[in-house]
Amino acid sequence: MYSFMGGGLFCAWVGTILLVVATATDHWMQYRLSGSFAHQGLWRYCLGSKCYLQTESIAYWNATRAFMILSALCATSGIIMGILAFAQQPAFSRLSRPFSAGIMFFTSTLFVLLALGIYTGVTVSFLGRRFGDWRFSWSYILGWVALLMTFFAGIFYMCAYRMHECRRLSTPR
C-alpha cells in the first residue's frame, strides 16, 4: 500500500509543479508575425523580445486560466490528502484518505483536460487560420504531461485504497 502511495505522491508532486509552470509561462503557442517570431501564453504575449499583458477578456483564455488554476488547486489538496494518508489511523474508516487523494487527482486531471481541450479547440479552429506558420510550444506540452502525471497519481492512490480495503476486509474482527 505504501509503495503505491509513494508512487502516487511522486507523480502528484511532478504533475503539480508542471501544472504551475505550464500555467505561469507564456510559451503555449509560437507563431511568425510580420517576419518576427512571437509566442503567447495564458497571461501575456511576446513579439520579439518585448512582452505585453493580455488585457482582452476573451472567454476561452479565461476558461483555460480558470481550469488550470482549479486543476493546480485540486492537485495541491490531493498532495495534502496523500501525505495525510501515510499517517492514517486504522480505526478511522469513514473516510479513506487514499481514496480522497485519488478523487482529488482525478478531479485535477478532469480540469486540466477541460483547459487543454478548450485551448486546443479554439487555437486550431480560430488562431491556426489567422497565423499561417504556428505551432504549440513547450508550456502547452507541459500541460499534457501534467495531465498524465495527475492521472497516474490518481491511479496509484486508488490502487493503494484497494489494497487497504482488501486487507481490512480479510482481517478477522
Low-confidence stretches: none
Tell me the strand percentage band.
5-15%
Mean pLDDT: 86
Overall, the morphology is elongated
Tell me what the CATH architecture is. Answer: Up-down Bundle
In short, what is this structure?
α1 (2-24) runs antiparallel to α2 (59-85) and α3 (97-130) packs antiparallel against α4.
Structure description:
One of its GO terms (molecular function) is structural constituent of eye lens. There is one protein chain. The protein has four helices and five strands; from the N terminus they run αββββααβα. With 173 residues, it is of the alpha+beta class. The protein has one domain: Butyryl-CoA Dehydrogenase, subunit A, domain 3 (Up-down Bundle). Strands 4-3-2-1-5 form a five-stranded antiparallel β-sheet. α1 runs antiparallel to α4. It is elongated and about 75 Å long. The mean pLDDT is 86.
Task: Explain the layout of strands and helices.
Blueprint: H1 2-24, E1 29-33, E2 36-40, E3 44-47, E4 50-53, H2 59-85, H3 97-130, E5 134-136, H4 138-170
Output the keywords:
173 residues; alpha+beta; 68% helix
